[in-house]
Structure formats: structure tokens, C-alpha cells
């Protein structure tokens, strides 16, 4: 019976162009898996909020996170936290964050985080805050930070730092 072979051949024709397109999507937002994006509520008048998430590079090339923005903030920075003379300090990642193939980066309290600066209004518990991640090839990824309650461990203190 020939029909199954014809169907297979037809399917193969469908699959091949898709595979070719995928192969071209290297170093790209499409290679990045985003897990568990979340944030904290902010008190009224607080100009900055935070964004936490996990990035995983599922592709076979390094992907660089170069920036982020949000309609809820005037500016979004990528920060790391470093110990200097026993004091935790935040530093912007000026060169962006390079994720090697297979690498995972967790953004979490007292670690890497997105800094949402110049908030146009407080972040409220239960709110979904849209953030767009930008990557080295110009591709982008939109995600929603889930604003959790303050019951969990305290976020790092951002007071007294420059933004
Ligand atoms: Cu920060």
C-alpha cells in the first residue's frame, strides 16, 4: 500500500522548512526559557521595584541579555549584587548578562535582579507587571512579573543606592 509513504513524504516536505527556520534562530530570545517571573509590592512613593526570574539558555550558542524595559517604569536596569567590605551593594551589568549554552541564571533577592526605576505608580500585590527583555541580536521577550505578597523573606534594601 503506497498511501502511507505518500503521507510521510508530504509531512517531510512540511517539516523540512520549519527545521531550517529553527536552525537560523540562534543567539536569540527564542533560545531562552523564562521561568517564574515575580516581583514585590512597593510602598507608595517608593521609586524603585524589583524583578526576579530564572533564565535558561536552551540553545547551542551564548545569548546575551542586554537590557529590559517596562511600561510601568521609566527605566529598567540589570543589577548584580556584590559584597564590598562586608556590605552588599548593587551594580549595573553594563555589558549585559551573557548566558552560555545550557546556562541558567537565577534572578533573586540578594542576587541578580531587574531594577524597575522611576515607577509610574506602586506595584500592587496580585498585579502582573509587563517587562520586555532585550537580547544581543535585537530580539525581545515579553514576560509578566507576578507581584507576590511581602510575606516571603524580605527583599534586599535598595535605599541609599543611586538610581
Ligand atoms: Cu538593584
Structure overview:
This protein has 163 residues and is mainly β. It has a single domain, classed as Immunoglobulin-like, CATH 2.60.40.1890. It is built from one helix and ten strands. The protein has one helix at residues 3-24; strands at 32-39, 49-57, 63-69, 73-84, 87-92, 97-99, 104-107, 113-119, 128-135, 140-147. The radius of gyration is 20 Å and the shape is globular. The model is unreliable at 21-25 and 159-163 (pLDDT under 50). The structure holds copper (II) ion (CU). Copper (II) ion (CU) binds at residues 79, 90, 113, 115, 158.
Q: Residue ranges: pLDDT <50 for 5 or more in a row?
A: 21-25, 159-163
Number of helices: 1
Per CATH, the class reads Mainly Beta
Per CATH, the superfamily is PCu(A)C copper chaperone
Average pLDDT for all residues:
84
Number of strands: 10
Termini Cα gap: 71 Å
Distinct compounds present = copper (II) ion
Cα-based radius of gyration, to the nearest Å: 20 Å
- What percentage of the residues does DSSP assign to strands (E)? 35-45%
Overall 3D geometry? globular
Q: What is the third-level CATH name, the topology?
A: Immunoglobulin-like
Architecture, CATH level 2? Answer: Sandwich
How many domain modules? 1
Largest sheet: 10 strands, mixed
The structural class is mainly beta
Task: State the order of secondary-structure elements, H for helix, E for strand.
Answer: HEEEEEEEEEE
Amino acid at each position: 500500500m503506497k498511501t502511507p509513504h505518500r503521507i510521510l513524504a508530504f509531512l517531510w516536505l512540511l517539516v523540512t522548512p520549519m527545521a531550517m527556520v529553527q536552525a537560523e534562530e540562534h543567539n536569540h530570545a527564542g533560545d531562552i526559557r523564562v521561568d517564574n517571573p515575580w516581583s514585590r509590592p512597593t510602598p507608595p512613593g517608593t521609586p524603585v521595584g524589583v524583578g526576579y526570574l530564572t533564565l535558561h539558555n536552551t540553545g547551542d550558542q551564548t545569548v546575551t541579555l542586554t537590557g529590559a524595559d517596562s511600561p510601568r517604569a521609566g527605566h529598567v536596569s540589570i543589577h548584580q549584587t556584590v559584597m564590598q567590605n562586608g556590605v552588599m551593594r548593587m551594580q549595573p551589568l553594563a555589558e549585559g548578562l551573557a548566558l552560555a549554552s545550557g546556562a541558567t541564571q537565577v534572578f533573586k533577592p540578594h542576587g541578580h535582579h531587574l531594577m524597575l526605576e522611576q515607577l509610574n505608580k506602586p506595584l500592587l500585590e496580585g498585579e502582573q507587571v509587563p517587562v520586555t527583555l532585550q537580547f544581543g541580536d535585537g530580539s525581545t521577550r515579553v514576560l509578566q512579573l507576578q507581584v507576590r505578597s511581602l510575606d516571603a523573606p524580605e527583599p534586599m534594601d535598595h535605599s541609599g543606592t543611586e538610581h
